[in-house]
Amino acid sequence: MTTSLPRRVAIPPLSAMPRAAPAGASVQELSGTTMGTTWSVKFAGSAAARQTLGRMIPAALERVVSQMSPWESNSDISRFNRLPMNEWQTLPPELFKVMEGALRIAQESDGAYDPTLGALIDLWGFGPSGPRTGPPAASDIAPHHRACGWQQIDLDAGRRRMRRSSEGAIDLCGIAKGYAVDLVMETLHQHGLYHALVEIGGELRGSGVKPDGSPWWVEIDRSADGKQPVLVALYNLAIATSGCERGFTSGAQHFSHTLNPRTGWPTANGTVTATVLHSTCMEADAYATALMVLGQDDAIDFAITHRLAAAILCKHGDTFIERTTPMLDQMLS
């Protein structure tokens, strides 16, 4: 007989009780595929609204893909990566917003999150060139690593344009999916729908409540360390998790898909997952990546400094250790 673990419950601080969903609304559901993964939306509304959003949500997601996907040769970011050094490119509003966020978090984390790792990501087999079964040669890694660095990117907010002074290619896969969640939620809000749960590839953002007044609950899975799972009420809150499970194994070594911008190699600091709760999924996404790279102690220090609600799961030998930040502890108390 299997005994399920009791759950810990995390509820964000509320200045006021969430407004009730519209009378007569029912939970409507939509889903599809995007960015090599799946998306789903649940919202309190009508069947007519569901039909409208069935058109609007895929269009919003396609905007993100057409602007930010390194797998699309004609995307805005792919065209930028082909530009000569120091040549400006005007960006659409969505891409400019993501680049502003990416560079801000790169600066805050001292490069633990860095959006200029495109060529390295591809070299390691995690980009458009396709997977590999063994690590690249150190002599190939070194020149790609030297070309990276978020400081090479210049943004001109007045003209909404960008240029670079080195050959490090932009890759936004550590932030674009989170932004896509935000954009879908924004699309719902534009249609007067403020009670919803949006999910893309395991990253989520909630708004309002269900028709019965209960929150949109999501779970932070802690099954690896045998501790109680954490159930989070997504009252106007987003959640993103970065992990080391994706990648490839060569010999006895696993190479994570998350690269350390400081070394050019996959992270290998014992961090298994980093989960961040934030008001936007874009920021939660990028911060979770930064925490994975920083490692347990530095990640906790960074999260405390930047007042992040976060959970870090690390492995030491056969032992799993979970650490949470004061901001998350306040939600759990």
UniProtKB/TrEMBL annotation:
It is an enzyme of class 2 (transferase). Gene3D superfamilies: ApbE-like domains (3.10.520.10). SUPFAM superfamilies: ApbE-like (SSF143631). Keywords: FAD, Flavoprotein, Magnesium, Metal-binding, Transferase. GO terms for molecular function: transferase activity. Signal peptide: none annotated. It comes from the Bacteria. Its EC number is 2.7.1.180. It catalyses: L-threonyl-[protein] + FAD = FMN-L-threonyl-[protein] + AMP + H(+). PANTHER family: FAD:PROTEIN FMN TRANSFERASE (PTHR30040:SF2), THIAMINE BIOSYNTHESIS LIPOPROTEIN APBE (PTHR30040). This is FAD:protein FMN transferase. It comes from Afipia carboxydohydrogena.
